[in-house]
Amino acid sequence: MLETKEYAPQRAEMIEKQLRRRGISDAAVLAAMLAVPRHQFVPEELRSRAYEDAPLPIGGGQTISQPYIVAAMTSVLRLQPGDRVLEIGTGCGFQAAVLSHLAREVFTIELRPELASAASEKLARLGYHNVHVHCGDGTLGLPEFAPFDGILVAAAAPEVPEPLLTQLAETGRLIIPVGDADNQELQLVEKHAGVFSTKMLEGCRFVPLVGHHGWQKPPLR
C-alpha cells in the first residue's frame, strides 16, 4: 500500500533509534514493530507524528503507547508462535496488531464500546484476523478462553487483578504497570508450578485501568 511505503523510512528510523539503541534486541519483536503500520492506528490529524518517541492521544482520554514501551512489554512476554495471548486495554488496536505477529491468537478487551468497535473494524480491515476484540471489564479477563500463555495489561492498576493471575497458564508471563495515577512501575509476573514470582522492571506512565479489580472510576479530567 502506497501510504505504508510513504512512512517506511520513519518506521525504520523508529526501529533503530528508539528500540535497538535502548536495548530491544528480540528479532521477532523488531520485525513485528517494523511490519505494523503505526500511522494507521492514530487519528488522521496526527499521522505525521505516528513514529515519534512519545505516546499520542487517540480520543476519550486514551493514548497509543510510546513505541519503546510497546516493544519492551512485548519482549518480556517471550511469545512463541503457538501461544495464546490476552491483552487488557485494546485502545486503538496497535499493541494487539504487534502481538498478532508473534502469537497464534490474541484476545483483547476494551472497556469503551466506541474504541472496541473502531479497533475491531480497523484490525479486520488491515488483515489481523487472529485478533479477537471484546468489549467489557478487562480486570475480569476472559475466563471462557483461558488459560493464556501471555497477558499484557496496557493500563495502570493499583495491584495485579486476581482474575488475571488465575487465567495465566503454567509457565505463563504477565506484564502490567502497577502504581498510582501518576507513577507506575512495570511488573513481570511469572507462574511456575502454580507459584507466582514478580520482578520489577522500569518506571512508566499509563492511563488508569478502570474496572472491578482496578480503579473503580476514571480520574476527573
Chart the SSEs and their pairings.
Elements: H1 2-19, H2 27-35, E1 56-59, E2 62-64, H3 67-77, E3 84-88, H4 94-100, E4 105-110, H5 113-125, E5 131-135, E6 148-153, H6 162-166, E7 168-179, E8 184-192, E9 195-204
Summarize the structure.
It is built from 6 helices and 9 strands, in the order H-H-E-E-H-E-H-E-H-E-E-H-E-E-E.
What are the defining features of this structure?
Rossmann fold, 221 residues, globular
Number of DSSP-assigned strands: 9
Can you give the helix content as a percent range?
25-40%
Which runs of at least 5 residues are low in confidence (pLDDT < 50)? none
General shape: globular
CATH topology of the domain at 54-204: Rossmann fold
Structure explained in plain terms:
The protein has about 220 residues and is α/β, with parallel strands linked by helices. The protein has a domain at about 55-205: Rossmann fold (3-Layer(aba) Sandwich), CATH 3.40.50.150. It is built from six helices and nine strands, in the order ααββαβαβαββαβββ. The strands form two sheets. The protein has a seven-stranded mixed beta sheet with strand order 5-4-3-6-7-8-9. A two-stranded antiparallel ribbon has the order 1-2. The longest helix has 18 residues, at about 1-20. The radius of gyration is 16 Å and the shape is globular. The N and C termini lie far apart (about 40 Å). The mean pLDDT is about 95.
